[in-house]
Amino acid sequence: MNEKTGVLLALLSSMLGGGAAVATRFLIGGVDPLTLAAVRFGGGALCLAPLALLLRPKWPSRADLPAVAGLGFLFYGVFIAFYNLALSYTTVARGTLALSTLPLLTMVAGALLGVEALTARKTAGVLLATGGVALALTASLGNAPEGAWRGDLIMAGATLCMALYNVYARPFIARSSALGFLTVGMMAGGGALILFTLVSGRVQTLLAFDAVQVWTGLYLAIGGGALGFFLWVVALRYASPTRVANTITVNPMIAMAAGTLWLGEPLTASLIAGLVAVCLGVWLATTEWRNTARN
Fold it and tell me: What's residue 221's pLDDT?
């Protein structure tokens, strides 16, 4: 497997993530964010565990286990709680547009941690995309739910969690395996969410799901959880964090279209302009990196 294949896998993962955003927005009206997080990543962990036991992948070393579990809790626990909470305030289109700044936050986090230098061109790309998102979200507030700005800010915090995960994960994946790394991490984050759901009595909410909610929850656990992030972790093994994160711009495209068709959410010209600005900003910031990588 080469870097190009890794990017294609990340692209497929981002497409599944766009569908998961719509599923989350559909369910969030009747389920609190933490219980819904347990459905997605607690359910995802339950899907991965028997598969990992059957395939016996290379597990993280004893020395790496605390860090891998910590990354899992950060992403599959903290990130998803923020993500779901954000979508309880804002629309799928606005939320995923804020999430699409992931490549730029990954780049900034990598620069601050000494992983990747932040040049003038990359800085210009970051400013262009961030400005486009800010302008789009501000201009479309009139068509957004009340308090949508809270969701947008919370999604920015969630995106930072994902950026840190991208930057720190790759060496641990390389020393173990994609399935072993993902299973340990998702069991740490998803397991904590399952435990919280059990001790807080929230299981009754899940038992009251109707057929449509059950099928939507299964998609979240299998497609948006286990499969989606298995593909993401495999992609991080073979491609750089920045290139993998670049594929997240597909997420709002899928989410905006599906949110408009199935949830009746408004799709405004300012949101589309913001997405274009993000794509241009990502292109501006990453083309220099690609040229450097070839030399």
Answer: 92
